[in-house]
Specification:
With about 100 residues, chain A is α+β, with helices and mostly antiparallel strands. Chain A has 2 domains: about 10-35; about 55-100, no CATH class. Chain A is about 25% helix and about 15% strand. Chain A is built from 1 helix and 5 strands. Chain A has one helix at about 10-35, and strands at about 60-65, 70-75, 80-85, 95, 100. In chain A, strands 1-2-3 form a 3-stranded antiparallel beta sheet, with no helix packed on it. Chain A is rod-shaped. Chain B has about 475 residues and is an all-alpha fold. Chain B folds into 2 domains: about 60-310 and about 320-330, Cytochrome Bc1 Complex, Chain C; about 355-463, no CATH class. Chain B has 19 helices and 2 strands. Chain B has a two-stranded antiparallel sheet. Chain B is globular, with a radius of gyration of 27 Å. The chains are: A alpha+beta (about 100), B mainly alpha (about 475). The interface of A and B includes residues 88, 91 and 94 of A.
Chain lengths: ~100, ~475
């Protein structure tokens, strides 16, 4: 076919095909967005109100169960929230208060 | 003369038998057909029986050929559907209530334990039987033209069965479930770029929680069963269209004898199903599905192991850089599995076990080599081999990834060439390499399940 002109039938087929593809894409995006994870306050991944920093003396490690983290007050007064999850395969890293170390 | 032509009217006109009429409106033909023609018609006309052809190959009926594994998978699906639907009625998919449902199954609900056991054991058995079904098809060349795509669908089904199992694993919400799923989904995390978003999407957050439970529940009871149902229908339809392969001895012509499906196939299937139901019921009556303490996200058990069918992967991860252990090697393995029929060169061996005498010998040798070699490598890696230590100037992904991977590939290529040197055909050599890799993977799975103790250190299972 050397003719550049697209036939009426080809044009309509292409249009309807493109519309069908668009519909499927829309549905897929809506479905995936519908199922995407939510983060709410006070749950893991959200914001936590756990009181004033004075409650946490320097050098202390306090587990925050709901947030899955340890609130660590460093010796110099700095604050670190350490995620409890091991990076290898996701096990929980326990903190031993007696020996003062993560085991 | 007249009397001969015209039938005499029945002196007692037939009374309408309503029961018979109703029966005939459902099942149109006779209930127990007396001759072959009506037996074949019954198969043709029946919705259920129509998954079979009206006549089947007589040699293919032998139990020692198919072992009824495909049929067994269907039976297990049926058992899982029935027990699964029952379980839906007593189970609440929330972290607060899920474990209580488990306790209720054990203490309050009539036959609660039996139904849960049946569901648990059938699900686990299904993984094993699906693999065996795949092996049966593989070793009798049942995947060659024109059946290539049906093999691919079978692999897809195997994956879906594993995913169904894995999503069900979380539902009891005990320590075993929680940590097996945590470890299992963490394996996914290692996929570069897309791994993390996928894991997040599946878990409904950054770690296993309430959203994960609803996600897995939805997948387990609706999406995956539907997908399996759809693909299985296609899978069986293709078997029906392409017909089952016919077993034969080496260098023998195909035995073309055929026999009617009723009763020769149907009665065997019926008895086989009943025997398996009896086995499942007996086993489930005596052996309880495991249930540990309620899930506690703060304390992980030591060792934390994934579900048993993932232990081969977890073990692999102990020997390779995560990108290789969790992604490259399994990915290559899976891709090869899908491509097997397209890599085959149509050696005329459909229906012959292990293709030939040479095929049998090399397959058996590969099996033994896979077991011994894998144990050897695991021990070697534990006590002597220390690539990252020897090559401290290289990043871990090279010293513990590229280097051992290249070594492994080299060994496989050498093995393939040795087989060819001893006169194995391409097909036989590939079958042997497949056997070697498969037996290695199964051995790794066994090592992971039985030979790994606290801190994933090597132990002897009997000590």
């Amino acid at each position: 076919m050397t003719k550049r002109k697209m036939s009426r039938r080809d044009f309509l087929n292409l249009t309807w095909g493109a519309l069908a593809a668009l519909t499927v894409t829309e549905m897929a995006v809506v479905g995936l967005r519908f199922l995407s994870p939510r983060v709410t306050e006070g749950e893991f991944g959200g914001t936590f109100n756990i009181g004033h920093y004075d409650q946490y003396p320097p050098g202390s490690v306090t587990p925050v169960e709901a947030g899955r983290f340890y609130l660590t007050r460093l010796a110099d007064g700095g604050i670190l929230a350490i995620y409890r999850r091991c990076t290898h395969l996701g096990c929980a890293v326990p903190y031993d208060q007696a020996s003062g170390s993560f085991v | 003369m007249d009397e001969n032509i015209q039938p005499t009217p029945d002196p007692t006109p037939k009374k309408t038998n309503y029961l018979e009429r109703i029966r005939k409106s459902i099942q149109r033909g006779p209930l127990s057909p007396e001759d072959d023609r009506s037996r074949m018609k019954m198969v043709m006309d029946s919705l259920i029986l129509h998954i079979h052809p009206t006549k089947v190959s007589k040699p293919a009926l032998k139990l020692s050929y198919t072992f009824g594994l495909g049929g067994l998978l269907l039976l297990l699906s049926a058992v899982l559907a029935v027990t699964g639907v029952l379980l839906i009625f007593v189970y609440t998919p929330s972290p607060d209530a899920a474990y209580e449902s488990m306790i209720a199954l054990q203490t309050e609900i009539n036959f609660g334990n039996l139904i849960r056991n049946l569901h648990h054991w059938s699900g686990n058995l299904m993984v094993v039987v699906a693999v065996l079904h795949m092996l049966r098809v593989f070793y009798t060349s049942g995947f060659t033209r024109p059946r290539e795509f049906n093999w691919a669908m079978g692999i897809a089904l195997l994956l879906l069965i594993v995913v169904a199992n894995f999503t069900g694993y979380l539902l009891p919400w005990d320590q075993l479930a929680y940590w097996a799923v945590t470890v299992g989904t963490s394996l996914l995390d290692y996929i570069p770029i897309i791994g993390e978003p996928i894991t997040r999407f599946l878990l409904g957050g950054s770690e296993v929680g309430a959203a994960t439970l609803t996600n897995f529940y939805g997948l387990h009871i609706a999406l995956i069963p539907l997908a399996i149902f759809g693909i299985v229908s296609f899978h069986i339809w293709r078997v029906r269209k392409d017909k089952i392969t016919v077993p034969r001895q080496i260098n023998q012509e195909i035995d073309k004898e055929r026999t009617t499906t009723i009763p020769h196939l149907v009665s065997v299937e019926f008895v086989y199903a009943l025997v398996w139901l009896a086995i499942l019921l007996t086993w489930s009556a005596f052996v309880n599905a495991p249930l540990e303490e309620a899930a506690n996200p703060a304390i992980s058990p030591n060792p934390a192991k994934a579900a048993w069918y993932f232990m081969g992967l977890q073990e692999l991860l102990m020997h390779f850089h995560p990108v290789f252990g969790a992604i490259v090697i399994p990915g290559l393995g899976l891709a090869t599995l899908f491509l097997i029929p397209y890599l085959d060169q149509d050696m005329d061996s459909v229906g012959v076990w292990f293709r030939s005498i040479k095929g049998r010998v090399t397959a058996f040798a590969s099996l033994v080599l896979g077991i011994v070699g894998t144990f050897g490598f695991v021990l070697l890696n534990e006590y002597w081999l220390d690539l990252p230590g020897w090559l401290p100037f290289l990043p871990n992904i090279i010293s513990n990834g590229w280097v051992p991977m290249a070594g492994l590939l080299l060994l496989i290529i050498i093995y393939y060439e040795i087989l060819k040197l001893f006169g194995a055909s391409n097909c036989e050599a590939r079958q042997a390499v497949f056997t070697l890799l498969l037996s290695s993977f199964v051995t790794l799975t066994f090592i992971g399940i039985f030979f790994r103790g606290e801190g994933m250190a090597l132990i002897l299972p009997w000590s």
